[in-house]
Amino acid sequence: MLPTAKCSSGVQMLTLLLEIIKMKGMRFCGLFYAVLYGYLVLFAVAEITDPSEVSALVAVVSRLIDPMNYLGNWNKGDPCLSKWTGVLCFDTIDETDGHLHVQDLHLLNMNLSGSLAPELGQLSRLRILDFMWNNLTGSIPKEIGNLSSLVLLLLNGNRLSGSLPEELGKLSNLNRLQVDENNISGTIPKSFANLTSVRHFHLNNNSIAGQLPPELSNLPRLLHLLVDNNKLTGYLPPEYSELPTLHILQLDNNNFSGTEIPATYGNFSSLSKLSLRHCSLQGAVPDLSRIPGLYYLDLSGNQLTGPIPSNKLSDDMTTIDLSENSLNGSIPASFSDLPSLQRLSLDNNFLDGSIPASIWQNMSLSSSARLSLDLRNNNFSSVLGDLDPPNNVTLRLAGNPICTSANIPNIDQFCDSEAVDNETITKSNNSECPIHACPTDSFYEYVPESGDLCTCAAPLRVGYRLKSPSFSYFDPYANLFEAYVTNSLNISIYQLSVDSIAWEKGPRLRMYLKLFPHANSSTFNTSEVQRIRDIFTSWRFPGDELFGPYELLNFTLLGPYASINPETQRTGISKGVLAAILVAAIASAVVISAAVTFLMTRRHARNQRSLSRRRMSTKVSMKIDGVKGFKFKELASATDNFNRSTQVGQGGYGKVYKGILSDNTVVAIKRAEEGSLQGQKEFLTEIKLLSRLHHRNLVSLLGYCDEEEEQMLVYEFMPNGTLRDWLSENETYIQVNVARESGLMFSIIDNRMGSYPSECIERFVALALNCCHDKTEQRPSMSDVVRELETVLKMMPETDATFSESTSMHSGSKSTSAPASSSFMTRDQYFSSYVSGSDLVSDAIPIIPPR
Ligand SMILES: *[C@@H]1O[C@H](CO)[C@@H](O)[C@H](O)[C@H]1NC(C)=O
Ligand SMILES: *[C@@H]1O[C@H](CO)[C@@H](O)[C@H](O)[C@H]1NC(C)=O
Ligand SMILES: *[C@@H]1O[C@H](CO)[C@@H](O)[C@H](O)[C@H]1NC(C)=O
Ligand SMILES: *[C@@H]1O[C@H](CO)[C@@H](O)[C@H](O)[C@H]1NC(C)=O
Ligand SMILES: *[C@@H]1O[C@H](CO)[C@@H](O)[C@H](O)[C@H]1NC(C)=O
Ligand SMILES: *[C@@H]1O[C@H](CO)[C@@H](O)[C@H](O)[C@H]1NC(C)=O
Ligand SMILES: *[C@@H]1O[C@H](CO)[C@@H](O)[C@H](O)[C@H]1NC(C)=O
Ligand SMILES: *[C@@H]1O[C@H](CO)[C@@H](O)[C@H](O)[C@H]1NC(C)=O
Ligand SMILES: *[C@@H]1O[C@H](CO)[C@@H](O)[C@H](O)[C@H]1NC(C)=O
Ligand SMILES: *[C@@H]1O[C@H](CO)[C@@H](O)[C@H](O)[C@H]1NC(C)=O
Ligand SMILES: *[C@@H]1O[C@H](CO)[C@@H](O)[C@H](O)[C@H]1NC(C)=O
Ligand SMILES: *[C@@H]1O[C@H](CO)[C@@H](O)[C@H](O)[C@H]1NC(C)=O
Predict the structure, then answer these.
(1) Residue 419 has what pLDDT?
(2) Which domain of life, per UniProt (predicted)?
(3) 23-49: per-residue pLDDT in tens?
(4) CA separation (Å) from 570 to 99, 527, 533, 725?
(5) Domain spanning 620-826 has what CATH number?
(6) Pocket test for ligand 5, best of 166, 194, 197, 211 (most atoms within 8 A of CB)
């Protein structure tokens, strides 16, 4: 039996530990008590996060491939308390169910592949689901539609396929749906019209086909509709012009073959950007002059015909791109009256007439302003005014008759220039500062704004991309942008450096931001890092029609920040919660230890039941120091006759009640059920053993009741106040948790027991945890456990051993070698007896065998 017996659950390991403690008395206890205590807490708090959410997370991680092992801690402890990477929980326990719930999943940019588990739908309180910039495949589970609290659904930048589930339309609190840059096919479900809270629809760069549902025009809050680079067909719904809040409508690279842009699009009240590039549109350019805040218009690459409407567009216009169409007529005079214009692209049309020099002459160029005029491949034959644009103006005229008319001086410079002035900015180092004065690793840099003070600091580095900016040159808006970002982050303007920018296809603007700490410190503290990251990752930047939506590409924590758990945000669970958890943990520990003791005795009891029952009538009275014999009546009245409302726990052995004794002592009463009753002798033996368990961290046994076919144990109940006080004095709970997470279990060992080699403790903890392996086959056998414990003991310093050869190793254990056992035994004769005798139940030794 012994060599093959497996420990069948964590409880079994506890049994073993408890047994060891009992046998060894106080001499060796400190170590085991401490470990056991930590173990009990961990074991107990495993129940703190809603169990269905824990199983959902386990299912989620089982579907993921995690080459960088970012989610390595997703099998240890409790998701909320052990702070599983990327899991953010509400910081208060739900009053109604007594659990913590998962609030956000932040798994941004972790190089994950695999697929999304349908069990995500069980994270019922989830508000943010963020898997951006990974390598996920498979489809979007329809169960996500069950997450009625979901605010942000961020799946962009993966390789997801399949269609958008109809069920997502149920997400009535959804603010942001980002599934762009995947390979989603199918159509946009009509049910999305029910997403009445949605502000951001980012579906660009997928394979979405079919008709844009006209029903989306009912969305009262929609700000950004980005569906560019898909396979949409059909018509452009005229109803969209009634979207009351829409800022950006971007439908580039679709195929609305044969349709016209509805004239009603001129009625959009708050549109700032309309982009319908490469959409196979026909008909005329609509009159958009009634849209007051339009910044950006791109209708390039279509088959639009007729003249350009002559009414004046908004003063905010930065960009007009009507290139690659079949427009005729001339350049409207109103184009000379757009003070913010940065880009006017009319190339590849059939425009004619003369080019009005007033377009650039009327511009009041600020120092950073630029204007790019692309008029190539049209029929322009003359310039109205002088052809002398300032340096800030790029004019391109190739492919027009004007280039062949010999009477215009300097025309060549405008007719053969192929160079495109792509805007890029790369900040140079603070050149006033000595080259090597900053720490030589690359984490520290001179703060750009520190001037000749040459302050060194470690910046936070953020990869950031404007998805759909409403301008063509960033520089004139750089100051506005810096103010926008620093205001959103609530930092000072000198703390931000836009390190580099680069335009990408789209056009999108990729940036690299560096955020520097306050002037008088060289690093951010952890909470500040978390606060800033929180703002970036939960899109708490205010919407801005000029800068449009952004993508967070990375938020890299290097050097001094490297130890901050990647993509996990808040660290602290509030003290109150911690206290509550600890109360729960201790309560569970009571329950567990109760369960343990009964489990230990049950088998034995079964064998002896009939005998014991008979013996029951002949009361053996027994006096145990410090343990009181209670009358059934006393305990019944303490618990209002075992009223359900006083029940605080339930185990296989029976129920646990909270009771108030006549002297107002609050106690936990464990009451065995019929079937869990044990022989009286065993029961009393157990009580005797339990009564020897005294440790400041363990609840102690106060008494028992053994009458009227009842067996009850009475433990001290941990009242809230005391615990709170205790908690604020020492942070044992945190230590245990931290110790476990960081593999430094020995750091929690009670100092008063003296020092033990850390290797012993590590092996011991490893053994304990091994016994809790999910798969029973993988747990060590009892004989392995015993052997390992012996090895651990052998490693103890010799001086610490008290030799006594009073007992010898029982021959029943084939696996223990003689030398090992002898040094093992020197520690405690009971222990060795237990080891050998245990399941074989040597009659001579009055102990209770573990199962
Ligand atoms: C991501 O994983 C791939 C292999 O799956 C590996 O080649 C690549 O280096 C990883 N990249 C990062 C940034 O971890
Ligand atoms: C994504 O997965 C594909 C195929 O599994 C692999 O070739 C590629 O390297 C992965 N990319 C990243 C960024 O991990
Ligand atoms: C979750 O979603 C699935 C499929 O959409 C549905 O069958 C199931 O009933 C939902 N569960 C709950 C609890 O709403
Ligand atoms: C995207 O999905 C389509 C089928 O829907 C498939 O034919 C295509 O190869 C996929 N593209 C990529 C890049 O995976
Ligand atoms: C929107 O929700 C209502 C009620 O919840 C439902 O009756 C309707 O069918 C939904 N609309 C669509 C288009 O799914
Ligand atoms: C989006 O798709 C277009 C067309 O397939 C492609 O040119 C562009 O690079 C893509 N953009 C991104 C950011 O993937
Ligand atoms: C657009 O659709 C039409 C038919 O609807 C088709 O003939 C044409 O080839 C498509 N164009 C592109 C670029 O896919
Ligand atoms: C919308 O635009 C159309 C055509 O431009 C016009 O006839 C109609 O009056 C406009 N509607 C509103 C509500 O402004
Ligand atoms: C512009 O083109 C349309 C057809 O595309 C034609 O009817 C119209 O006469 C043209 N106007 C001019 C001024 O060429
Ligand atoms: C733009 O013009 C301003 C003066 O109006 C000048 O200071 C600045 O250098 C010019 N920029 C470029 C790129 O030519
Ligand atoms: C983060 O993004 C920036 C800007 O796109 C890029 O330059 C940098 O290499 C990225 N860093 C990492 C670690 O991916
Ligand atoms: C300018 O940017 C475009 C993409 O927007 C790119 O295709 C092109 O190569 C760039 N040109 C130069 C000179 O960098």
Answers:
(1) 61
(2) Eukaryota
(3) 444 333 333 444 444 444 444 444 588
(4) 18, 7, 10, 24
(5) 3.30.200.20
(6) 194
